[in-house]
Design a protein that fits this description.
Blueprint (H helix, E strand, L loop, with lengths): L6 E2 L10 H5 L7 E2 L7 H15 L3 H14 L4 H9 L12 H10 L3 H5 L5 H13 L5 H18 L4 H18 L5 H16 L4 H10 L10 H7 L7 H5 L1 H7 L3 H18 L7 H17 L2 H17 L4 H18 L13 H14 L2 H19 L6 H21 L3 H16 L14 H11 L3 H14 L4 H13 L3 H15 L5 H14 L4
Antiparallel strand pairs: 1-2
Helix pairs in contact: 2-3, 2-4, 2-11, 3-4, 4-5, 4-7, 7-8, 8-9, 9-10, 9-11, 10-11, 11-12, 12-14, 14-15, 15-16, 16-17, 16-18, 17-18, 18-19, 19-20, 19-21, 20-21, 21-22, 21-23, 22-23, 23-24, 23-25, 24-25, 25-26, 26-27
Length: about 525
C-alpha cells in the first residue's frame, strides 16, 4: 500500500490542474487517503477532490473527481467521492438523481460497482453511499448511512478519513434522529477533535468540529479549530464562512464580518453566469448581521446592494429573492431606522415583523393591526405545511406572538402584551439557540425585555435580557437593553458595565447608541445621579 499512499499537501498547486480549479489552486488542507488506483495522477486529483469535499466545495470537488475518473475509469473511490458532492448533509434531498447517475457510470448494479473496490475499506465506503443513495425516504437513508459508517469506523478507528466522514454522518443524522440533548453533536465533535490532534490541517476535522460545537455553550471548544480553518481552504466559500459560526457565538463581530467578506470573495471568484447564488447568499446574510452588531451600517447596506445585484445577474434567483426581505428587515430592526411598508398577502414573515415593529414605534396602529392579522395567516399556513422545517414555521409563530404583543401594548393592554410575548418566549425556548443570526429577526426575549421596561417592570426585564444574551452572546441591542434595565433599577455599576461593553463594540463606528452609552458613562464618572 505504500506505493499508493499519496499525501495531499496544502501548498502544492498541481501542474495537471485545469480550468476553475487551477485558477483557485490555493490551500485546501492536508490529508492522507490511500486508495487502490494504479494511476498517481488520478490519485492526486482524487486527493484534491477529497479535500474540497470536506470543505463543501462541491463544484471544485466534482471537477477533481471527474478528472480522476477520466484518468482511471474504474477508480471506484472517485465515483464514491463525486456522489457525496450531491449530499448536502445539513439539508434534505436536493438532487437524488445525480448521485445515482454517478454510481451507475461505475457499474450498472451495486454488485458490479462493489467488485471495482478491491479493499475491504473501499468496499465499506462504497456500501455506505449505496445506502445513502438507495431506496427509502431521506431519514431512513441518513440513518442507514450513519450505521454503515459506524461499522466502518469501528473497524478502522484510527483512519482519519473514515473517522471524519463518520463524524459528518452523525451531524447529518441529528435532525432525523430528533436529538435535542447535544449528545450526538458532542460525539461527532469528539471524533473530529481526535483527527484534529493527529492532523491540525485536516479540512474535515476543523469543519466538523465547528458544526458539532455551534452553540453558545460548546462554542469555546471550537475556537481553535475556527482559527485554523480561517487559514486553510482559501478557494472554498463555505470554508471561509464556517469560522464565523463560532465567532458569532462568541460575539466576535469584526471577525464575523471579515470571515464572511472572505467567503463572499471566494464565491464570486468561482461564480459564473447561470450558476446558483447559494454560496454567495450565506456570507451576505451572516456578514450583514456581523456588521450591524459591530455598528458598520454602511457596510450592512453594501451587503443588501450586493445581494440585489447578484440576484439580478443569477440564472437562478429564487434564493436571493427570498433572502432580500430578510436582510432588509434586519437592517430596519437592528438600526431602528423605522420603515412602515404596506401589508399585503405576499408580505414575508421578515417584512411583517419589521413593518409591525416599525408601525408600533411610529404610532401607526392601523398598520400594526394589519401586520398582526396577516402574520397569523402566514403562521397558520406554514404550520399546516408538513414540508417546512420547524426552523421556518416555529420562528413565524414566535414573530406572530411578538407583533400581537405590540398590538396589545399599542392599545393600552399591558397584561395582554405580556401574555402574548411570553407565549413567544416559551416557544423560542423550545427551539435550540440560534446557529447564526436570530430567527425571527427580532429575538423574543429581547422584545420581552423592551415591553417590560416600557410598562415599568425593569427587574423582570433584566432576566429576559440576560437570557437573550445567553442565547446570543454579545448581541448589542440586548446589551443596551440590559444597561437600560439596570439604570431603571438605579444600579449604576451594572448599567455602566453594560454601557462600556457597547462602547468597546461600537468604538470604531458612529452609531446613535454610542452617544447614549458615552453620555451615561460620563454622568457616572462625574458623579451624576
Amino acid at each position: 500500500m505504500k506505493g499508493f499512499r499519496v499525501i495531499c499537501m496544502v501548498l502544492l498547486v498541481l501542474a495537471i490542474s485545469v480550468g476553475t480549479v487551477a485558477a483557485q489552486g490555493k490551500d485546501v488542507g492536508t490529508l492522507v487517503f490511500p486508495t487502490s488506483t494504479k494511476s498517481p495522477e488520478a490519485q492526486a486529483r482524487f486527493l484534491r477532490g477529497a479535500a474540497f469535499l470536506h470543505s463543501f466545495g462541491w463544484k471544485q470537488a466534482i471537477a477533481e473527481f471527474q478528472a480522476a475518473q477520466k484518468l482511471d475509469p474504474d477508480f471506484a473511490m472517485a465515483y464514491w467521492g463525486q456522489s457525496l458532492c450531491y449530499n448536502h448533509p445539513l439539508l434534505g434531498d436536493r438532487d437524488l438523481d445525480s448521485p445515482r447517475a454517478v454510481l451507475k457510470r461505475l457499474g450498472a448494479t451495486p454488485g458490479e460497482r462493489l467488485s471495482k473496490a478491491p479493499t475491504d475499506r473501499e468496499k465499506g465506503f462504497l456500501q455506505a453511499v449505496e445506502i445513502l443513495w438507495g431506496e427509502g425516504d431521506i431519514t431512513e437513508r441518513k440513518m442507514g448511512y450513519l450505521e454503515a459508517m459506524r461499522r466502518l469506523y469501528q473497524k478502522y478507528p484510527k483512519d482519519d478519513e473514515v473517522a471524519s466522514h463518520y463524524a459528518l454522518a452523525i451531524i447529518a443524522a441529528v435532525r432525523p434522529a430528533g436529538d435535542t440533548t447535544f449528545r450526538m453533536y458532542v460525539e461527532a465533535g469528539a471524533i473530529a477533535m481526535e483527527v484534529f490532534e493527529r492532523n491540525p490541517n485536516h479540512p474535515g476535522a476543523v469543519h466538523y468540529i465547528i458544526h458539532s460545537f455551534d452553540d453558545p455553550v460548546h462554542a469555546p471548544l471550537a475556537l481553535t479549530a475556527a482559527d485554523r480553518f480561517a487559514e486553510i481552504a482559501e478557494a472554498v466559500a463555505h470554508a471561509r464562512h464556517m469560522p464565523s459560526h463560532i465567532f458569532i457565538q462568541r460575539g466576535m463581530w469584526e471577525r464575523v464580518s471579515m470571515s464572511n467578506q472572505s467567503a463572499y470573495d471566494a464565491a464570486i471568484n468561482l461564480w459564473e453566469p447561470g450558476d446558483t447564488i447559494g454560496d454567495a447568499v450565506h456570507p451576505l446574510d451572516w456578514g450583514q448581521y456581523g456588521d450591524l452588531q459591530w455598528g458598520d451600517y454602511a457596510k450592512a447596506r453594501t451587503w443588501i446592494a450586493r445581494l440585489e445585484e447578484l440576484t439580478e445577474k443569477s440564472g437562478s434567483p429564487a434564493r436571493g429573492v427570498s433572502a432580500l426581505p430578510l436582510v432588509k428587515a434586519r437592517y430596519v430592526l437592528e438600526t431602528e431606522i423605522w420603515n412602515v411598508k404596506p401589508v399585503t398577502e405576499k408580505s414575508s414573515t421578515h417584512e411583517l415583523l419589521a413593518t409591525g415593529i416599525s408601525a408600533y414605534h411610529t404610532g401607526d396602529n392601523a398598520t400594526l393591526e394589519k401586520a398582526a392579522s396577516q402574520i397569523r395567516v402566514v403562521a397558520e399556513k406554514q404550520a399546516a405545511d408538513a414540508s417546512l422545517y420547524d426552523r421556518q414555521a416555529q420562528p413565524t409563530r414566535v414573530a406572530q406572538y411578538e407583533i400581537e404583543a405590540l398590538d396589545a401594548l399599542a392599545k393600552g393592554d399591558g397584561m395582554g402584551a405580556i401574555e402574548h410575548i411570553k407565549k413567544g418566549v416559551e416557544l423560542a425556548e423550545s427551539m435550540p439557540p440560534p446557529r447564526g443570526a436570530p430567527n425571527p429577526v427580532k429575538p423574543a426575549h429581547e422584545l420581552a425585555g423592551e415591553i417590560l421596561l416600557k410598562i415599568g417592570q425593569a427587574e423582570e426585564a433584566v432576566l429576559f435580557y440576560q437570557t437573550q444574551l445567553s442565547r446570543t452572546p454579545g448581541r448589542v441591542l440586548s446589551i443596551r437593553g440590559l444597561a437600560r434595565a439596570y439604570s431603571a433599577l438605579g444600579n449604576r455599576v451594572l448599567a455602566g458595565e453594560q454601557y462600556r461593553k457597547l462602547q468597546n463594540i461600537w468604538s470604531e463606528h458612529s452609531v446613535a447608541g454610542l452617544k447614549e452609552a458615552s453620555d451615561y458613562l460620563a454622568s457616572t464618572d462625574s458623579g451624576g445621579q
